[in-house]
């Protein structure tokens, strides 16, 4: 908004003259923002008379590249620019879209005005930043990141005094400056409402970007009045599946009394009184129902899930019977995990590499994916590479790519490599401690130079990726032992985050529920009494991976109609691990540990302690042979289940040491990793 009325041109020229002669702008009577901009233009050494000293206009090829870089901005702006131009047509004006450097990307205007504009280089490819063209609406809006009107002699360069311009910055949902929208015209045709028109159009562009289909997991539209939903005045919040705020439009910030800087730390539960899960389950079942809820500060809002939210697509898959992962439910996540995730997301957004540590199977890759999907890069590729799972002689080609015919056995067409697959997105290097020293040097060069040299090629290819590394080994120790490069360690260690072992997590029950839901989405599976307590007090050396295998076996052993997991549904070695078969448990859990005999001997009775002992005895005597396998084919476990059990057992005995477990199992580490992923 203007603080002062526009002064007549002679007054403005006089004031500017004073500035040029004394070097100090007169602060009275002229708009302070214009005076400040004159100061900046003066300090940039621009001559206010005569032509522009600017030589920064882009040629056709560079303009094309700049347009490609700004593809999303242009795509979302174009229809709104066309609409805006409809409103100002035949008023001696034009609508302009500039990028965040002030380079004009797209213009549309009245033909006779366009030819006047051409004379002052108000055309595509020209730069209208303040340092090049002095005070002007595009450049000054960029410099201040604020909307502004610059009229007639308020322009710093005399050649631009015939213009009247109104411009406003376009911001991303994270508050980053993306570009400027401007209406420029002949100063004689100025309209007081032009700036309002431009800022409404900017809101429409910003909304259109947040509402892109499938861009964010959860998109909430809200307003104090029901009729405000879907209007340009609505607030829009973008959230991750687990309820962290990923972005917002400016109306949302206004309605909630927030700033962009608050967003990365904010969780749904800190803002609203309604549980996110309740809201989502209601919206996914009865889509397009308006819900009324309150903020923690007591403001009341109507809200609705936007149809472009990713969760709606996932819900549609769920109802059509496809399995979906459900481990992201928001309200029961372990606080250490949640805190690490919030920290990781903030740092990652600033392009600082994350180093995840934690025992094998704690979910380091799952965590890295959550950081990626909660970031502004979530629409781009997440490339995960397990450095321990790729044979040493193939890591180089796998990571850096290769040209056709680079080595025997290579693909005919060559390969871009995993690093280039992550271009624009995120590269996750798991078990980085296992990377051979020679490749550590190459990786360091990629990180320093941001280019990749494919195997067999002489030329480097630029890459732009964010990095997350993980290791279950102590990398500092490896540095001391000379097995890991110190400079690489500091490069990848922007922020180290220790992920909790499963036995230390406080969300064990919620985790079990979400894994069971994943394995059996149509049914609500529960545990028989005491089982949860036993599972919770077990140490889970193989962490979430082991828990998944264990629950997968248990759900696979449920009969069609069964929804309750009982002891008989666990693998035998797990029962031993839990102390159930050793006798300890039978003594401790005398009354509360019923074991159904059904799946062992096809009976139906639920036994008490005596029956349990009998049942277990029966199982040993009748169900299983001396080799530990069932003697009946009906009960015969799948090879896959046995293999999973053997792996779990080996990992448990070796306390999660994958190399040792692989040796004990008589397979290579790569094979073991592959089997662990299956
Ligand atoms: N919160 C979770 N909910 C459901 N499954 C999970 C969760 N966290 C991890 N998992 C599962 O546990 C297994 C191990 O997870 P992940 O591969 O992320 O662990 P990791 O720490 O990277 O393991 P490693 O160190 O062996 O590479 C995977 O099958 C993964 O899907």
From TrEMBL:
<keyword id="KW-0804">Transcription</keyword>
<dbReference type="InterPro" id="IPR009057">
    <property type="entry name" value="Homeodomain-like_sf"/>
</dbReference>
<dbReference type="InterPro" id="IPR002197">
    <property type="entry name" value="HTH_Fis"/>
</dbReference>
<dbReference type="Pfam" id="PF25601">
    <property type="entry name" value="AAA_lid_14"/>
</dbReference>
<dbReference type="InterPro" id="IPR003018">
    <property type="entry name" value="GAF"/>
</dbReference>
<dbReference type="InterPro" id="IPR025944">
    <property type="entry name" value="Sigma_54_int_dom_CS"/>
</dbReference>
<dbReference type="InterPro" id="IPR058031">
    <property type="entry name" value="AAA_lid_NorR"/>
</dbReference>
<dbReference type="Pfam" id="PF01590">
    <property type="entry name" value="GAF"/>
</dbReference>
<dbReference type="InterPro" id="IPR002078">
    <property type="entry name" value="Sigma_54_int"/>
</dbReference>
<feature type="domain" description="Sigma-54 factor interaction">
    <location>
        <begin position="345"/>
        <end position="556"/>
    </location>
</feature>
<dbReference type="InterPro" id="IPR029016">
    <property type="entry name" value="GAF-like_dom_sf"/>
</dbReference>
<keyword id="KW-0238">DNA-binding</keyword>
<dbReference type="Pfam" id="PF00158">
    <property type="entry name" value="Sigma54_activat"/>
</dbReference>
<dbReference type="InterPro" id="IPR025943">
    <property type="entry name" value="Sigma_54_int_dom_ATP-bd_2"/>
</dbReference>
<keyword id="KW-0547">Nucleotide-binding</keyword>
<dbReference type="Pfam" id="PF02954">
    <property type="entry name" value="HTH_8"/>
</dbReference>
<keyword id="KW-0067">ATP-binding</keyword>
<dbReference type="InterPro" id="IPR003593">
    <property type="entry name" value="AAA+_ATPase"/>
</dbReference>
<dbReference type="InterPro" id="IPR025662">
    <property type="entry name" value="Sigma_54_int_dom_ATP-bd_1"/>
</dbReference>
<protein>
    <submittedName>
        <fullName>Sigma-54-dependent Fis family transcriptional regulator</fullName>
    </submittedName>
</protein>
<keyword id="KW-0805">Transcription regulation</keyword>
<dbReference type="InterPro" id="IPR027417">
    <property type="entry name" value="P-loop_NTPase"/>
</dbReference>
